[in-house]
Amino acid sequence: MSAPTTNIPVAIPAGASSGAPGTQPPRTIAGSLSGGVPGARGIAGRLLHGTPGRMRLFGLLGVIAAVLLGAVSANALLASQAAVERAANNTAQVVRAQSIHVDLLRADAVATNAFLVGGLESAESRARYEAAMSRVASGIATAAAAQPADGKALGVLAERVQTYAALVEQARSNNRLGLPVGAQYLTQASAGLRADAIPIVTQVVKANEDRSSKEFDRSNSSLQLLVGVLSLIGLVALAVWLAKRTHRYLNPSLTGAIALLLVALFVTATTITGIGRATRDVAQGDFQSAVTLANITTAANDARANESLTLIKRGSGAANETSWKTDKTDVDTDLDRLKDATLISLWGDYVASHQKVRSLDDGGRWDDAVKLSTSTATDGAAKTFGDFDVAVTKARDDAGKTTVTNLQGQGGSAPLLAVVVGLVALAASWLVVRGIGQRIEEYR
Which keywords describe this protein according to UniProt (predicted)? Predict the structure, then answer.
């Protein structure tokens, strides 16, 4: 009797083939995914299937909307603050360039008036001229370092200023020797200053005024918040849709998210609007006053130089007197705009002194006209103009400093608010996920 046959199973190592005909190799992972086990598409389809799937999809869109609102709000705050900083920097450059303009014409006014005395000018006049030219040199260097965009123009300006200074020194040397050619050198220096140097300064001032104006406009970046408003509307629409589908009209988490984002959007809009309004007030107030006072100072010093040049040319300075009258009109117009009684009174005193100078010169009393023009007595033109120049320069400096200080003080809290708004947006995103998750669980 033979023993019964027993089929003993043979263990086949994992990953090995039995080699028997018809034996299938082990399934690979790829085969599993493409076979009975659902792949990524199947998982996504199941997650997005039916009303729970749409809840998940809309919840994702709600998170995106919350994050987008936070990002746009934070960016708008930072953009406003950056625009104010750039406006302050450009305004400071305007003040520097205007100071250069004023000091160039002040130096010319001092040089031409000192030239009338003949021989060696007084130590006081020499010191005032050198102080003005020193401020011009340092101002050009500072302005070039502060605003690289103006570097090339300021480099050319420095060369033109050196040419002017060299001609003045030649005029001074010849004047000390009593040589008439000194007057020609001085006339050439003044003409070259106005034809070659002053236009460069004017262009630099204009360029930075334009930059400041553009940054004043950019400081109010509230238009960016329209994206945030649309995001908030989307979240409200999500809440309405969810209420209709689930018949649960209050979702505390989703409502909390909307409330947080609404507050964040309101605070952002209020802050940006406040920054824009404040910078606009500065632009129309202190900044405009600084520009106007600078224009007055430059026109007044140009007038003073033209007064001296008219006398230097002795009978052939009609063109300079015409320029003086043009400068006077400019000063009068700007002073009327400012309505500063003190400056108006001081300018009137100088105008009266100038008219006396012209009356003496036109009457053939040139020496007396020169004495009155260079006199530091009470009614002397040097005295009356000096008083006005000191007062208007102080007013201009104060207005310029106030403008820059006020601008630098704007938007200081914007970076902190941007961080807070970002954190609020993240918290709102979590609340959106939580609120949608609760409804999905209830729906099941």
Answer: Membrane, Transmembrane, Transmembrane helix
Distances (CA, A) of 28 to 12, 19, 38, 40: 17, 18, 14, 16
In a domain, 57, yes or no: yes
| Single-letter amino acid, residue 21 | P
Rounded CA-CA distance 118/196 in Å is 27
Considering the domain boundaries, does residue 21 fall inside one?
no
Q: Which domain holds residue 369?
A: 52-308+315-443
Does residue 23 lie in a domain region? no
Residue-wise pLDDT tens digits, 146-200: 999 999 999 999 999 999 999 999 988 887 877 778 788 888 999 999 999 999 9
Q: Decide if 9 is inside a domain.
A: no
Element (H, E) at 368: helix 366-374
Alpha helices in 247-340 (DSSP H): 252-282, 288-312, 318-338
Q: Which amino acid is at 305?
A: A
| Residue 270: C-alpha distances to residues 83, 110, 233, 280, 426 (Å) | 17, 52, 19, 15, 21
> What is the spatial distance between Cα 230 and Cα 197, in angstroms, rounded to a whole number?
53
Give the chain's domain count.
Answer: 1
Q: Name the token pair of 8.
A: 């003993």
- Please give the torsion angle defined by the CA atoms of residues 302, 305, 311 and 312, in that order, rounded to the nearest 10 degrees: -130
CA 172 distance to own-chain centroid = 43
What CA–CA distance (Å, rounded) separates 346 from 65? 63
- Spatial separation of the C-alpha atoms in residues 130 and 103, rounded to whole Å: 10
Please give the single-letter amino acid code of residue 276. Answer: G
**How far is Cα 364 from Cα 354, in angstroms, rounded to an integer?**
16
3-state class (DSSP) for residue 127: helix
Euclidean distance between CA atoms 284 and 113, whole angstroms: 37
pLDDT of residue 229: 86
Q: What is the pTM of this model?
A: 0.73
First CA to last CA distance, the chain: 67
